[in-house]
Structures are given as C-alpha cells and as structure tokens.
Amino acid sequence: MNPLAVIGRIFLDFLVSVGRVSVFTFNGVRHVFAPPIYLRLTGRQMMVIGYYSLPVVGLTALFTGMVLALQIYLGSSRFNAENAVAWIVVLGITRELGPVLGGLMVAGRVASAMAAEIGTMRVTEQIDALTTLSTNPFKYLVAPRMIAGVVTLPVLILVADIIGVMGGYLVGTHKLGFNAGTYLKNTFDFLETLDVVSGLVKASVFGFIIALMGCYHGFHSKGGAQGVGRATTDAVVSASIMILIANYFVTELFFSGQ
Amino acid sequence: MSNDAKIALRGVYKQFGKKVVLDGIDLEVPRGKSLVVIGGSGTGKSVMIKCVLGLIRPERGEILIDGQDAMKFSASEREETLRKFGMLFQGSALFDSLKVWENVAFGLIQGRRMDRDQAKQIALDKLGQVGLGPEVGELSPSELSGGMQKRVALARAIAAEPEIIFFDEPTTGLDPIMADVINNLIKSCVQKLGATTLSITHDMASARKIADYIAMIYKGKIIWHGAAAEVDHSGNDYVDQFIHGRADGPIKMEVLKP
After folding, report:
1. Residue in A with minimal Cα distance to B94
2. Full domain range(s) for residue A192
3. Mutation site, B53, B56, B87, interface A, largest A CB count within 10 A
4. In total, how many domains does chain A have?
5. Is the ipTM of this complex over 0.90?
6. Residue A3 lies in a domain
C-alpha cells in the first residue's frame, strides 16, 4: 500500500476521533448544566472517585514525598543546600507530583472502571434500554461522572498533598536529621497560595479528563467482551496521555508570567 | 398510512458501511393489534425496531408514529414520544447496579418523576403479574435465571402501561416450557393493556401464539405480510421454507468456505 495513503488514513482517523470526542464533550457538558441533576448518582461517583481512591493515591503521595526528600537531600548536599529539602518537597508535591501522580493513579483505577461499566452497558443494550425508558444516557451516565470528577479530584489531591508533605517530613526529621520545627517552618515559609491552587486546578482538569475518557470509550465500545476490554485499555491510555499534555498547558497558564 | 395504523414505515433504508441492512422497508402496525416480524438472523429485524425507537437513524424513509413523522422529532419530542413505548430486549438489558424492583420502576421514577414508594408498589404489582413474588424485587438481576430475567424485563416493559410495546426475540435462549410461559404472559399483558405490539422473532411457535398479523423480512425488505392464520398458506416459497425450517429452498445460507 502507498505509504502516503497510510499516513493520510491515520490522519483522517485521528480527525474523526477528535470530532467524536468534541461532540461527546459538548453533549456531556450540556447535560451537566441542564436539569435534572441526579444527585444520588453523583454522590455515588464521588465516593468511587474520591473515597475509594484515597488508599492508593495516599500511598503514592506518601512514598513520593519520602523519595523526593531523600533525592533532594542527596542532590542538594553536593553544594551545601540541604535546607532546600523542605520547600522543594512541598513545591514539588503541591505543584506537580501530587496532582499528576494522583491523576494518573485515579486514571488507572477509575477511567478503566467507568469504561468497563459503561462499555458493558453498551454491549448488553442497557444504554438503549435507558433511552427507551425516557432517560437520556448522557444525563444519567455521563453528567454525574463529570461533576464527580471535577469536584472530587481536587479534594482527593489536597489530601494527597498533605500526605506527600508528611512523607517528606518523616524522612527529613527521622532519617536526615532535620529539626522538626525548622523543617515545618521552611515548608510553610516558602509555600504560596498559588502553588496549592494551581495543583488543585490541575486536579480538577484531570478529573474532567478521566471522567470524559472513561465515559467516551465505554460509550463507543462494541464487539462484546473483547470490545469492552479494548475500551478499558483505551480509556486508561488516552486519559493518562491527556493528563500529561494538559499538565503542561495548565502549568504554562499559571506560571508563564513569573 | 391507513387511519388505524399506530406505526407505519415507508421506504426505510439503512446501511452500515457497504452493507445494506434495510432496503426500503414498508410496514404498518395496526392500532391495538400484534404484528410479529419473522426472519432469519442478520436480516435487519433488530435494526428496524431500533430505527422506530430512534436508537438508529435511517438514511432515508419515513417512520410515522400516530401519524407524526418520527424522523423530524426534536430531542424533547422524541423523549415525549418514547413515553408511549415499552421495550423487551433480547438479552433483557436489566441494569446490574439496581435491584429488580428498581429496574421495573425505573421508567416511572426517572422518566415520569414518580415518588419512589409509589413506584415500588407498582413495580411489585407488575412483578406479581408476571408470576414473581415481592421477595424477588429485592434481589439483584444477576441472581436470577434467564427465564426470570425475561419476566422482570417484561414487567419493566409494561410497568408504565405503554400504548406500544416492542418485543425483541422474547423467547430466544429459553427452554420450550419457559418460552411458552413468556408467550402467555405477553399475550395476557397485552390484552389487559390493549397495547399495540411489534415483535421480532425467528421462533415460529412464539409468532403463532402472540401474533394477529405476521410479516416476513428478508434481505432488508418485507417480502410477505398477512394475518397470522394465513402464514401456513402464504403461497410464498421464502415464508414456507422459513416456517418449516428447511435447509433447501430459495433462502440460501451464506456459509464461508474453508
């Protein structure tokens, strides 16, 4: 086959996917703002995204904070800047590692579950059944997940930030020999509101991406169990890549003028 | 469209890729009567029903429901029209995440905003009509046998006392006795409601039992249409071959050669 034709076909398929995701996003967001809002379902999704993800995100944050403290100590000791450990840990966690690693962990846990659940509903005609029962599937399935993702992930990441900083504190005070009071003073003296807010805004964006990709791939799954499996994989991969891309642009937005 | 046709299809055409599935379907479902469409697998029966429900949009043709062109409905008009419908899906399509009674009451609670307690009473009553006790209402759909799931799906289809009920392969996958139980339930429920019904099946025993009229679909076209009593004397070779289940005849199975 002509290589140019192959490239053209891939490009066209990409454009079709972008168009489909755009239309899906528009429909999903439209139903977020149009009543009725299913509060019970939204609450259930908040539990799934937030509460049930807390152990895995908390552990990730804890060990990331601990490793970060060790690595920064080893690096900064080469030029006698060990005091930088506390504030580099807190900035690293709140600005980047908390939201990004937390987002990726939630993408792995939640986007896959959403895609599997909605994908199974698609291939077993449950989504068609919703329509015949006068219930819009976007309003019933997509909108609650989008709301839950946008609202819950910042709360989850705030908790993860605190756990991550605590991880750094534990290593700093118990292993590296920092004074506890000094470590905490260094942590809070250099921390600005924008550092935390930018991380929480990122978390909110990532929450939206996770819900969008989970729902989108579930909605478009076909071909039985194999199709649902593929949708699950695609949801995690696409959500993870989009999180990393969105992370750059949100960072650029917040810190480009500084 | 004749005055007593509840649903009429005129030249409905649908193709997926290069495959033409509906090739100009013309069909009328008389008000208050039961029409059964028979035909082999892959002849377009399910697609036809999904076109009427608006789950699939045909490329061309007219679909009239109570004389109104369903192809021109807005989203809200379609939602309003769907309140007239009940649908029994081939695989039951019960919602896994809900209890049995919540499945039956779903259209009442979500679609018609009925109070949950009142909807539960109706759901338990409908479960009783299909021979299931109130204790079944508290179970999850996954705890039920295939026959019980069909009965629950039937209860859900009739819960809102719709004017039109569609049955998609109501007896597929059931043993002959359970199939006859389902046929009897369909007949009694429909008679009680006075509903117009459109069923699709390749089970001739079921078709003979529940039909007032029978139509046969082949290669996306209606090739015969008449009263149920006439099906044995249709004078149509395709119908004869199908109802007697003969391998030889004008219908050739497309078997891929190794």
Report:
1. A126
2. 21-252
3. B87
4. 1
5. no
6. no
